[in-house]
UniProtKB/TrEMBL annotation:
Residues 13-270 form the NADP-dependent oxidoreductase domain. InterPro entries: AKR, NAD(P)_OxRdtase_dom_sf, NADP_OxRdtase_dom. It comes from Secundilactobacillus angelensis. SUPFAM superfamilies: NAD(P)-linked oxidoreductase. This is Aldo/keto reductase. Pfam families: Aldo_ket_red. The lineage of its organism: Bacteria, Bacillati, Bacillota, Bacilli, Lactobacillales. It comes from the Bacteria.
């Protein structure tokens, strides 16, 4: 199984996303079972955020992990831009920790840039790391220019990861961002790695070329899409599923090794970018 190293921790390259989970009480049991199935299949990373369902996703994760040994998990949460100031961030993190039922998260991300000066946000992220409420901090929805600005700040280069939208139908980060992060030893976390409803390319899994590669590997189309994402250097994918069997299949996709012929077929359907594009966000 492919792995990624984040903040000194080696984790399987496919984790569990939780966006849109926890919103529907009638699905709680099923969603908890999906998280359990993903962890049982080998996932270690669970990615959530205070924004997701205004804390409901974190509450769901807390229920799901209460009987799982803490050392078996790598927990990621995120702070909203409106709470990313010196005055508000610790309160936000404390609330996330309470919903999750843990004393610390492994990685705390600045969800996207807001009006708080970046230098202030970074200073507070670093302070919360030093007091032990998070083991590491990072950023999300940052592009190359944002990261270059970040790297100029005190402690800015201590960022442990950057999380952005990345999938076969949204390849803009391949033009320069992935290389920048590789050069600076900054791991990349891919959200919506099999596509997302709000994207133009919403039917990646039904593309004939994707289906042909899936047939070759006796895999599902979604497994091929995930294998493609984590085939990139130091890229962690966090697909979301509320179905236990799908969650398991997602994690096992890290075992699929795509061939050069496979990659050519996927490139034919969804070509790599030939110029810098605006960062895709959801």
């Amino acid at each position: 199984m492919q792995t990624v190293t984040i903040a000194g921790h080696q984790v399987p390259a496919i984790g569990l996303g939780t966006w849109h989970m926890g919103d529907e009480p009638s699905l709680e049991k099923q969603e908890i079972e999906a998280i359990h199935a993903g962890v049982a299949a080998g996932a270690k990373v669970i990615d959530t955020a205070e924004m997701y369902g205004s804390g409901r996703a974190e509450t769901l994760v807390g229920k799901a992990i209460k009987d799982i040994p803490r050392e078996k998990l790598f927990l990621i949460s995120k702070v909203l831009p409106t709470n990313a100031s010196k005055d508000r961030m610790e309160r936000s993190l404390d609330a996330s920790l309470e919903r999750l039922g843990v004393d610390e998260v492994d990685l705390y991300l600045y969800h996207w840039r807001g009006t708080t000066p970046l230098v202030e946000t970074v200073a507070e992220l670093q302070r919360l790391t030093e007091v032990g409420k998070t083991k590491a901090w990072g950023i999300s929805n940052f592009d190359v220019a944002d990261l270059e600005e970040l790297w100029q700040l005190p402690n800015g280069s201590k960022a442990a990861a950057n999380e952005d939208l990345f999938n076969l139908g949204s390849r803009g980060v391949e033009y320069s961002l992935l290389d920048w992060q590789a050069d600076h030893k900054l791991p990349f976390i891919a959200y919506s790695p099999v596509g997302a409803p709000d994207q133009i390319n919403t039917h990646l899994g039904s593309n004939p070329n994707v289906l042909e590669v899936a047939r070759r590997h006796h895999a599902s189309a979604y497994q091929v899409l995930l294998a493609w994402v984590v085939g990139h250097q130091q890229v962690l994918a966090i697909p979301q599923s509320s179905n236990a069997e799908h969650a398991k299949e997602n994690v096992l996709a890290a075992d699929i090794q795509l061939t050069s012929d496979d990659l050519n077929l996927l490139d034919e359907a969804y070509p790599a970018p030939t110029e810098k594009l605006p960062l895709d966000v959801l």
